Amino acid sequence: xxxxxxxxxxxxxxxxxxxxxxxxxxxxxxxxxxxxxxxxxxxxxxxxxxxxxxxxxxxxxxxxxxxxxxxxxxxxxxxxxxxxxxxxxxxxxxxxxxxxxxxxxxxxxxxxxxxxxxxxxxxxxxxxxxxxxxxxxxxxxxxxxxxxxxxxxxxxxxxxxxxxxxxxxxxxxxxxxxxxxxxxxxxxxxxxxxxxxxxxxxxxxxxxxxxxxxxxxxxxxxxxxxxxxxxxxxxxxxxxxxxxxxxxxxxxxxxxxxxxxxxxxxxxxxxxxxxxxxxxxxxxxxxxx
Amino acid sequence: xxxxxxxxxxxxxxxxxxxxxxxxxxxxxxxxxxxxxxxxxxxxxxxxxxxxxxxxxxxxxxxxxxxxxxxxxxxxxxxxxxxxxxxxxxxxxxxxxxxxxxxxxxxxxxxxxxxxxxxxxxxxxxxxxxxxxxxxxxxxxxxxxxxxxxxxxxxxxxxxxxxxxxxxxxxxxxxxxxxxxxxxxxxxxxxxxxxxxxxxxxxxxxxxxxxxxxxxxxxxxxxxxxxxxxxxxxxxxxxxxxxxxxxxxxxxxxxxxxxxxxxxxxxxxxxxxxxxxxxx
Lengths: 289, 280
Prior knowledge:
The structure holds 2 protein chains of 2 kinds.
Chain A: H1 8-19, E1 35-39, E2 47-53, E3 56-67, E4 78-85, H2 99-113, E5 123-125, E6 129-141, H3 146-160, E7 162-164, E8 166-172, E9 175-180, E10 187-189, E11 197-204, E12 207-210, H4 214-219, E13 222-228, E14 234-240, H5 247-277
Parallel strand pairs in A: 4-6
Antiparallel strand pairs in A: 1-2, 2-3, 3-6, 5-6, 7-10, 8-9, 11-12, 11-13, 13-14
Chain B: H1 22-37, E1 53-57, E2 65-71, E3 74-80, E4 84-85, E5 97-104, H2 119-132, E6 144-154, H3 159-173, E7 182-190, E8 193-196, H4 200-207, E9 216-224, E10 229-239, H5 244-279
């Protein structure tokens, strides 16, 4: 994925460090790196968030549009995820290099969200019109653990999204005319607090670490990504890498993934409520920090 | 959307008629759900019984190894080709690569599928590759790649698990060195019921969105019995984390049963081969 190469001595150093529960950057096995989150930084989007997890930099923007619902689900809205791996992140993403990762990320994100995302909230007129959310994820810098960073940023951006209020609907035979409020502040927020976040656990040696760096990902035999809801339920599991797992290890990894996921969801919710309450005099940093 | 100009495309803007039968299919799902509460499945199986398998290896004469696998209504062909050098490759790779292709035939599902690969097929292809990678002795053919193609002829649920088992058989038939036989099973979870090897309708029921806090979804596990290693684990739907050990144990038990069948099929092939040789 990235142009990092390690020699044998460096790998042994990382693996021994993980065994001692003391990683290269001083963390223990279950710790995350510092996270920075900034909301509402793209003015043209209905919701946006920028997340920085150590060196991984993710920008997520949500745009809403009006669409007709699918015939098999007339009372549901639609969500679509697009991930774009910018060539700025790493030269490996140049050209079509990041396409594979981007497809996997967007597919897994939609799988992880679909069991908990209540799409009926996006309905306007059943069978006629609904909101469609375009969740665009842009990977600006790649510092390992993309799955976690992308899911946190996507959840934050969806929580930040607000839908324009519909003032009235006029039925004219088959056609329905929607009148949408022209005041940009006359909106209602989208409730996305039930969505899941992804937790990657990388197996290194006989133990596993949360939030692996690129170097640790290279040393690891395999990685399990668990999607966890705020209540600790698991909505999707994915295996990365060429390794295999013993049944007991797998159970243990999923258990601790769920535990970490609850804490991560809680931390994100706290940050979001804090952000909402201090909305008046917020200093914007944007990309210049 | 890229289109293939060499094929005749269907007319634009047609709608599959099944979409007009939504009420009926919803009724069918309710029937399945009420049946399950009484431990009765729509095809009369017990809740923890796998569907019958039909295993046939060596059916594609052009390929190095191939297998045809039928698991109830799910039918698929898998073929494996000789290791060959990776074209346009500069770096030397210490381990061989797997190139998988997973394709649903256009007529295999209820709704017609396109010729181009969609995101579901890409995801299944990734999962197939990840399931097989740990099982194959990739160090034996450094800098080479193996092509594994799966074509689904009919989809009646548990298609990925069936594909992984078929790929394991095809690799065995193609004499590709492997650490162990690989088999896979899937489970459908609906409330507190664990359905082994769900059919297409049962999968739809299990993947429908739950209103409350109940377990729903599918779990798939690929397993190497002798090494006791899980090579791939995929789960969808929402479920309680404390239930996972039970699901994993059920899947492993089922895989051990499947392993015996696969081994007996492989043994029969070997005996047949030697019988033919002595006759000549």
